[in-house]
Amino acid sequence: MKIVVVGGVAAGMSAAARARRLDESADIVVLERSRYVSFANCGLPYHVGGAIKEREDLLLQTPQSLKASLNLDVRIGHEVRGIDRERHTVRIVDLETGREYDEAYDKLVLAPGAVPLRPALPGIDHPRLLVLRNVEDMDRIKSLVDAGARSAIVIGGGYIGVEMAENLRERGVTTDLVELADQLIPPLDRELSRDLETHMTRHGVSLHLGAAAVAFRDSPGQIAVELADGQVLTADFILLAAGVKPDTTLARAAGLELGPRGGIKVDRHMKTSDPDIYAAGDAVEVTDTVTGLPSLIPLAGPANRQGRIIGDNLCGRDSVYTTTQGTAIVKVFDMTGGGTGASEKALIRAGRTYRKIYLHPSGHAGYYPGTAPMHMKVLFEPDGGKLLGAQVVGFDGVDKRLDVFAVAIRAGLTIFDLQDLELAYAPPYGSAKDPVNMAGFIGSNLLNGDLHLWYAEEFPARTADGMILDVRGPQEYEQWHIPGAVNIPLGKLRSRVDTLPRDTPVYVYCKVGFRSYLAYRVLRQRGLKSVATLAGGAMTFQSVHNR
Ligand code: FAD
Q1: Are 29 and 37 in contact (CB under 8 A)?
Q2: How far apart, in whole angstroms, are the C-alpha atoms of residue 547 and residue 528?
Q3: Mutate to test the pocket of ligand 1, among 166, 282, 325 (most ligand atoms within 8 A of CB)
Q4: What is the pLDDT of residue 2?
Q5: Distance (Å, rounded) from C-alpha 516 to C-alpha 195?
Q6: Distance of CA 155 to CAs 137, 142, 230, 499, Å?
Q7: Whole-angstrom Cα distance, residue 167 to residue 187?
């Protein structure tokens, strides 16, 4: 069997390597347009920033090492320009010599990845406007910084834009970040990304949110970008990180079916509409685990796993790829944020009903040094509590909670199940009641009716009919409180219950939601009928209202 793979990085190389491990006799050719195969694209920003010192550390393999270890015929600098499905051949150009030739295949694997979005704006081809997709792009950016570039503008506040802004700051480059949406990391819900934005600003990145770039032009020795509000920013270079779209050039020209979102359409075996052509990675459309909708989710984990599944299927096994839940994480200086499953806005778009909770547990036991509260949001079904999504932003222990939620969602667990998870604990790592257990307790209380929540976004319109009760201490209240709130510290509440109105709702809050929950239990058992506690307390309120 002759297998030809187009694209020699995440999905393509996974498919080729797996196929070799299962079939020693297969003839496997990998064609890669760039000069590098199997490189660590996720590590590129960190070499620019200096955290990854050696460039070679990003270059995981070479054609020679792949020949030696896996007997793969890897041809770098070779671009596939077309597919002849009738003849079962691909047309290839050797980019160094210009030689064109055909290569026959029995099975073809398309793993061409994604291409950066380049909006059709005036000046978009300016030489100081760069993108970051591969090693050559990284070299270009790094050499500018090494040569003394002092200022940069990043267009796009998604994962790559944020990582690059951080790494440019780490090199002392004055950095502006322009994002069209009114938040960083648009896959997260806005109140969670607020915490990351505050942190970025603290670290010297100038954020321009809800700002559209409309034109690029020359500025003496620099480049300028004009924003829709008329503001003009100038810098030594601009990094365009405005998102990616699936590279479907070959698939489209070959008449392969595309999905509704514009990615290559594949079945559960990663097979395209042609039974002899498979596709994987950023170029394909996947089914979203939670919403069930066709989606484009360009991430390294799914790409690698899809490639491996193709390798299986090429060698006669029956492996299926089910869905992608979009588990993603980003480092923002010493902060971490990420999500898994659906966000609240994705659920709204999909027309799904849900319940949500917020909490701010510490990454590990508060009495052991080096922890801080994290901001956690968990979404689940109102009936039965099946988990739909989780987002976490904080300092320590964010990644491990995200991964527990990722597994829980994949396993179809409910918010009730989270109460029973037995998770690793010693004071430097967690708490006896882990933050994930705590989410289970709060969510279960909510669905069982032991807790009634009100939400920050309901202020002021929907809270105007009642009394807002702050149960924190007087000093906390002095420092900041929700406008119009009355302060009765939790310790004094029992003696002052009779002063509270019985015929209007009482909206209780504290810093994170724990004291207000205790207050809620007191008030309900003392006969007040309409009481609710603020989800996530003042901390979530401040993120929602940007205070
Ligand atoms: P790629 O890995 O991009 O490989 C596609 C290859 O195909 C390219 O090398 C391209 O040159 C080649 N190619 C395309 N067309 C042809 C052709 N016609 N002929 C020959 N070769 C061709 N994901 C995460 O999950 N976590 C991260 O932290 C993360 N960080 C990232 C940081 C950066 C800077 C970038 C660029 C991406 C990051 N990603 C991250 C995304 C992740 O790298 C991709 O989702 C993943 O690499 C997709 O794999 P792929 O095989 O589909 O495409």
Answers
A1: no
A2: 31
A3: 282
A4: 98
A5: 22
A6: 16, 17, 16, 55
A7: 21
45 lines ligand 1 (CB under 6 A): yes
Across 397-515, the runs of DSSP E, i.e. the strands, are: 453-454, 467-470, 486-487, 506-509
284-299 as b/e, with b when 16 or more CB fall inside 10 Å? bbbbbbbbeeebbbbb
pLDDT, tens digit (0-9, with 9 covering 90-100), for 453-512: 999 999 999 999 999 999 999 999 999 999 999 999 999 999 999 999 888 999 999 999
Contacts of 501 (CB under 8 A, 6+ apart): 466, 467
138 CA distance to ligand 1 centroid (A)? 13
pLDDT of residue 124: 97
* CA-nearest residue, atom 33 of ligand 1: 42
| Alpha-carbon span 412 to 38, nearest angstrom | 33
- One DSSP character per residue, 134-200 reads SHHHHHHHHHHHHTT--EEEEE--SHHHHHHHHHHHHTT-EEEEEESSSSSSTTS-HHHHHHHHHHH
Distance in angstroms (rounded) separating the CA atoms of residues 343 and 285: 19
Contact present, 413 and 437 (Cβ < 8 Å): no
pLDDT digits (tens, 9 = 90+) for 332-351: 999 999 999 999 999 999 99
| Angstrom distance (rounded) from CA 265 to CA 294 | 10
CB 519 within 8 A of CB 490: yes
In this predicted structure, the answer to whether residue 71 has a pLDDT above a threshold of 80 is yes
Phi and psi, residue 312, nearest 5°:
-55, -50
117 Cβ partners below 8 Å, 6+ apart?
242, 243, 244, 245
- Residues noted as catalytic: 42
Check whether the bond before 460 is cis (ω within 30° of 0): yes
Measured in whole angstroms, the distance separating CA 19 from the mean position of its chain's CA atoms is 30
- DSSP code string of 333-353: TTEEEEEEE--HHHHHHTT--
Residues 102-154 have pLDDT tens digits of 999 999 999 999 999 999 999 999 999 999 999 999 999 999 999 999 999 99
Establish whether residue 6 lines the binding site of ligand 1, counting it when its CB lies within 6 angstroms of any ligand atom.
Answer: yes
Is the pLDDT at 159 greater than 80, yes or no?
yes
Q: Is 33 in the pocket of ligand 1 (CB under 6 A)?
A: yes
Q: Between the CA of residue 105 and those of 254, 277, 315, 432, what are the distances in Å? A: 15, 10, 15, 57
3-state secondary structure of 291: coil
Q: Which residue's C-alpha comes closest to atom 32 of ligand 1?
A: 42
Rounded to the nearest angstrom, the distance between the alpha carbon of 247 and the centre of ligand 1 is: 10
Q: Which atom of ligand 1 is nearest to the CA of 37?
A: 9
Assess contact for 385 and 356: CB atoms under 8 A: no
Beta carbons of 214 and 228 less than 8 angstroms apart:
yes
